[in-house]
Amino acid sequence: MDPTNKPRGPSPHYSLYQREIFKKGGETGELPSFSVHPDELVESTKKKLNDRGYFYANSNAGLGWTDRANREAFYRWRIIPRMLVDTNTRDLTTVLFGHRIPAPILFAPIGINKLYSPKGELVPAKIAGELGLPYCLSTAASQSIEDVAAANDEGASVKNESNSVHSYNGPNGGNAKSPRFFQLYMGHDDEITVNLLERAWKSGFDACMLTVDTWQLGWRPTDINIANYIFYYPPGTVGNELGASDSVFMKKHDEDLKADSGKWIDSNVWHGKAHTWEKMPWLIEKWKRISGGRPFLIKGIQSAEDALKALEVGCEGIVVTNHAGRQVDGAVGSLEMLPEIVEAVGDKMTIIFDSGIRTGSDVFKAIALGAHAIMIGRLYVWGMSHEGEAGCRHVIKSLLADLDITMTVAGYQSLTKDVFRNPKALKYNPHGVYPRGEHARL
């Protein structure tokens, strides 16, 4: 791991982050303050947060079988390593909606980030900017659209010294600035919806991602046990910041908020009244008009039929996800459905994969099965729960290093050329059960 003999390639040598940690430990005795092993990380997060914060991040629908299905699906696909391949430089870059990004990893939209750090969404937005990775902002955020955009810009302007070795310089083939996605929970007041889209576009969010699997929260017993719905708790501000900063919503509901602190979340986010495919052409047309034609995606696709329907109504992309197992208990794992969806629409639209990603090998597998990029959520929440910006940065840089090293030792030089949609990179094993807890570390 001699950094002086590593030629410059398309991607940063993310693997050197492992060496940096080893050197600090060997020379000064400085060790990471928490483990990034996913099983250990989720356990230590429980010690860092109160019950509301911990269970909001980790609650699943019902018995948690869909969350387990997500991990089991990854367990059944096995990487086939190749030997004597020149992987002295790796190419993890990809072009996403006209933006060349250094790795196909997006920060998923997660609400109420103030449960995990006082700065809330400003933390992951800044880290995403530092690393050049796309950030997705939730409508259930605990910071305003404008403030999150400013934090993302701040991160992009920071010269992170720990990333200075062979840093990414934006090779040709796309706009080197990472895109920002606005994740929309659409209520039934079209005026408020349009205003949210206009605010997002003005703040530099140049792709719209509509979530369609969560008009209402799934049945999550570990949240039920402690009545874990922070929007209703006094003083009624955390989680309502996007509404409180929206001029149209406040003009209509300022008085209502005095009697009902949950008015924003109940009427515009998890309102319990589902939309249908018939509404999609209207919404897509509004976004296209506001943004000058920028991409529109639907998040929550779990079947080839729905993927084809999304293509038919005019979506440029979809997010294959089951909301990390938080909505329908006993549902299919997202990775189980990815091959069918890729076969149906993979040549016609951009496919982003979400749900169950924990490691660099997981990223590799999703790309090999046809995803153009992946999203991570719980990982960065767990990181910021430990040390805010430093914790979030550590987890994401560890994931990037894990992916980079996996490419190196498995013998694959380029994600897009050698791994993407490559059936020879994986072998399916239908046998065995994904181990949990202590057994996973044996």
TrEMBL record:
Needed cofactors, names only, are: FMN
Q: Give the highest taxon in the source lineage.
A: Eukaryota
Q: Which keywords does the record carry?
A: Flavoprotein, FMN
Which sites are catalytic?
Answer: 323
A Gene Ontology molecular-function term?
oxidoreductase activity
Q: Binding positions for glyoxylate?
A: 56, 185, 220, 323, 326
Q: Give residue ranges for domain FMN-dependent dehydrogenase.
A: 46-416
Pfam families, per database record: FMN_dh (PF01070)
Question: Where does the record place a coiled coil?
Answer: none
Which InterPro entries does this entry report, sorted A to Z? Answer: Aldolase_TIM, Alpha-hydoxy_acid_DH_FMN, FMN-dep_DH
Question: Record-annotated residues binding FMN?
Answer: 109-111, 138, 183, 211, 299, 354-358, 377-378
PANTHER family for the chain? L-LACTATE DEHYDROGENASE (AFU_ORTHOLOGUE AFUA_4G07050) (PTHR10578:SF75), S -2-HYDROXY-ACID OXIDASE-RELATED (PTHR10578)
* Similarity section: Belongs to the FMN-dependent alpha-hydroxy acid dehydrogenase family.
Q: What is this protein called?
A: FMN-dependent dehydrogenase domain-containing protein
Organism this protein belongs to: Jaapia argillacea MUCL 33604
